Amino acid sequence: MIIVLKPNTPQEEIDAFQRLFEQQGLGTHLSKGVNTTILGLVGDTSSMNEKTIAANHLVDHVVRVQEPYKMANRKFHPEDTVIAVASKAAAKDNHNNGFAFFGKSHFSVIAGPCSVEGEDQLVGIARAVKASGATFLRGGAFKPRTSPYSFQGLGKEGIHLLELAKKATGLPIVTEVMAIKQLEVMQNVDVIQIGARNMQNFDLLKEVGKCGKPVLLKRGLSATIKEFLMSAEYIMSEGNDNVILCERGIRTFDNYTRNCLDLSAVPYLKKVSHLPVVIDPSHACGISWMVEPLSKAAIAAGADGLMIEVHNNPEKALSDGEQSLTPKQFDSLMQKLEGYIKLEERSL
Ligand code: PEP
Ligand code: MN
Q1: Would you give the DSSP letter of residue 13?
Q2: The model scores a pTM over 0.85
Q3: 196 in ligand 1 pocket by Cβ < 6 Å?
Q4: Which one of 112, 236, 324, 334 is most buried, by most CB atoms within 10 A?
Q5: Distance 57 CA to ligand 1 centre (A)
Q6: How many domains is the chain built from?
Q7: Cβ distance 193 to 175 under 8 Å?
Q8: Ligand 2 midpoint to CA 124 (Å)
Q9: pLDDT per residue over 210-239, tens digit each?
Q10: 195 in ligand 1 pocket by Cβ < 6 Å?
């Protein structure tokens, strides 16, 4: 961090100010020009608030050179993080020693309905997406809906049905938590999803940081990349390193698609962070026919996985039918993606 001091600051005040930082364990470097004095802070300044420093009467302005996120930062962790989730389906196929992975050379596809609606619906979809090559089953039991009059999810019963589908297929399950209390029923959930609307629910982030399960963190509707990574930092700072970042489209000025898929987030996040990055093309575009080209684009951009909504009867879905693929369409998509994924692995 670089602190530019006001001109004509008396030397004894500069000395006292400099000592303040040294007492906090930071190195300092003072550079005196003709008109300007600059105090450089050396060391980990991620927990320092530049606005508080700028409020000091000696300070003209502050420039942050180091990112405020540390645990999510590639500078502090150069190797890609690989997240391993035990999978009975993988074990049965003698695949990957019984694990499904996110990150580095591993590509995972999470598929399933937007909402868990019933046993036949969920288990049927789970069997179908597994047969097509999905490595995780998704399904919302607690649903964040814009309208309080829309289907709110089956709640605890939905979690129970996810457990049944996991038992039937061996696929690990991914589901969203909206409130801390809901974590009580998630013992058998494999990956906890934090939805876009809760990306900055800091108490919830801290709690999933303590729960010890991998977390799929979705980018907020209007969140900057820095805010997104700071939310990952919240989870990691509670001792949970298993965070998967999910870009699911952001708000822009246009509305020809539900959201705007920010594909540049993939190479950028992978450059500045070691965490795996997954793309959710379904929520990004909101239209089923666009899921295929966006999935291909996500792989080409370097994503570590996809999350895709699949429904046995999209026309009758209780949520997000218009963006859901049928199992048949999902199967065709997976066949087309195979070549792309292999190509990507070869280039690693
Ligand atoms: C979802 O995955 O069903 C969902 C609600 O996603 P998002 O939080 O990205 O809107
Ligand atoms: Mn949905």
Answers
A1: H
A2: yes
A3: yes
A4: 112
A5: 46
A6: 2
A7: yes
A8: 18
A9: 999 999 999 999 999 999 999 999 999 999
A10: yes
